[in-house]
């Protein structure tokens, strides 16, 4: 099934957060998609308002039985999300605990076998 998509353009004000959450909820109800792809490339410089928005969108999606995936996040947004402890799946990145394609793990001599 194809994921639902929403484009977030910024800067986003606190007053717009509730409306965007309603948009995500309606999108999920209409499509039944397992994940919402949020294009965050147009949000501009990230700040705590952006973090608040993404956290609320993730909670809205989770309550609907879905999840959030980010598209085109700014490296600063990625760093800020890490700083506050929020983890989001990002398009084009391998899933957590899954090695990137073409990467082999090296074994050091003397390492105990698992």
TrEMBL record:
Top-level taxon of origin: Bacteria
Disordered: region residues: 94-114
Residues covered by the MlaB-like STAS domain: 6-86
InterPro entries recorded: MlaB-like_STAS, STAS_dom_sf
Protein name: MlaB-like STAS domain-containing protein
The organism's taxonomic lineage, starting at the top: Bacteria, Bacillati, Actinomycetota, Actinomycetes, Kitasatosporales
